[in-house]
Amino acid sequence: MRCPFFKKMTIKNDTDQVNQMKGGDRRMDYEEELETKGYIDCLLHELHEQPQLIRQTNIEEVVERTKEEIIRDGFHGYELRRHVFRMILRIDFILTTESVRLSQEGRDAIDELRRIANGQKKEDPRRFLRIRHFLAQRFQHHMQ
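Now predict its structure.
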């Protein structure tokens, strides 16, 4: 018997779900795309920093695969949001079925990616100061 939380994802299902979400049809601007890619990098960084014994390989694999698809196929705007939405669905499934240890930055990155995938506006900017500091360092490194 299949797990009730897992269903086969199709493009039509994703499109319908994204359109039904609050603000799901809101377009992504360039800054939001950069922010999304930064949060994916931050989440990967946090997953790689974990000790080998508690490393979350399933989540790591999902995030790495999504990042590779985004880079390889050059997704922007709605397609990028749809891929992030699918990634968050997979991560949520893993979080509900497995015992997962994540740092606060990792949980914050997942929360921010969930917010972006749902098309919601930014929350209080003071809430995620540590993750924003990481993103600032990452972008500064790329600009040099």
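DSSP finds six helices and no strands in the chain.
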